[in-house]
Amino acid sequence: MLIYIELHNVAKYDMGELLMEDLLRPIYQERASQVNTLGILILEKKKPVSPVTDNFDVILFIIVREAKEPWYVKHYEFEGKTAAMHIVDEELLQHWINTSSFRRSVEWVINGSIIFERNEYISELKEKLRTFPAHSRDLKKAIEFSKLIRSYSESKDLFENGHHLDAFSRMVHSLHYLARLAIIEKGFHPEVTVWNQVKKIEPEIYKYYEELIMSKESTSKRVQLMTLAVEHAVSIRAKTSAKHLLHLMNERDEPWSLGELKIHPQIKEYALDLSSMIEYLVEKELVEIVRQETKGMNIYHRLYKTASIEDL
Fold it and tell me: Using an 8 Å Cβ cutoff, are 149 and 276 in contact?
């Protein structure tokens, strides 16, 4: 069934007095009448520099089902203003939500105003994002944790080999992953302005960032001190952050090869960093190594199984 949306006669109004929604109505009204359109949101820029809206004055975010293109973008100018229209397939949007791979999209859904929705689709999506279900949270924690382990390990290795500036750079990335992990732990979705969130939610990690960036110590000393701090922060989060992986591994009695884990559909979002994550969990005795004989003398396949995770 097609849905008719009345088009305002914008000519009889002073453009300066019109709401942004009224000005953009000719752009989105056709989309709203299409049966595969699930909802339309509008988000306006609130300050001169706005990373959330890519510095456009307004974002039109249109969610559709079975789109020909997963993500279609078009830019507009009108009355000295700029607008960006994003038409996104719901599957791609769900991927962005699950992986934090395009964090602005989550902010558009959470903070955007609904101007059209079919069967309360966006209202329900907003509620789902607000409550942040445990299974979604566990996946996001695993993704950020795997990146954190990789980045932190690289920083430590670079430092030990005397590459202090490169180690510093990787440590900055490590703190970003740690910050996003801490935000997820508290039940929130990481935003574009992640350090503004962390300052309110996890001030200790914000202090780490300040010390690394602003300290008057030498670069090498700052990285050395931060390595110890991050190592502790990672260690105390290891079990809960790896919950997604550990629970999956615990679903069968037989040990897993790394190859089996890498191709598992539930792990694909952090498969690239899985090796370093597994090694870290072995080090922390959360994962055990099982040796399996091969045809070669004293050569074994290395398989993995979980240690006890009853208290997760």
Answer: yes
